[in-house]
Amino acid sequence: MKIGGLHKFSLSDYPGHVAAVVFTQGCNFRCPFCHNGSLIPSSVPDSSLIPQEKVFEFLEDRSSQLDGVVITGGEPTIQPDLPEFIHRIIAMDLLLVKLDTNGSRPEVLHRLLKEKLMDYIAMDIKAPLGI
Length: 131
Hints:
It is a single chain. By secondary structure, the protein is an alpha/beta fold. 23% of the residues lie in helices and 22% in strands. It contains 3 helices and 5 strands, in the order ββαβαβαβ. It is globular. The model has no long low-confidence stretch (mean pLDDT 94).
């Protein structure tokens, strides 16, 4: 999984929960108003990405202090290994999973829902500024 950022502590990204926020790198939209514009490009040097193992080490160290993990972006559903990443979080047995998505890949959302891999979904609906 391409991870472009990690916020180790949030009280606002998962309502009612203390969470870590994992930012995926890459988005299939190019919204000019994006507040995470640096996460839009999918092709970035590997040196600018956070290794997945570092994220899991952090989550294991802090699992007693966190209620959940928010996976956001960029757009997480363009990550081919998103289901495996979530399975690994769930295997930690303590953390809730929230997914922030633009909703553009309903087939991925369907799979994640069918496999019960999320506890919460937030969908950010996009539209042209003129509407």
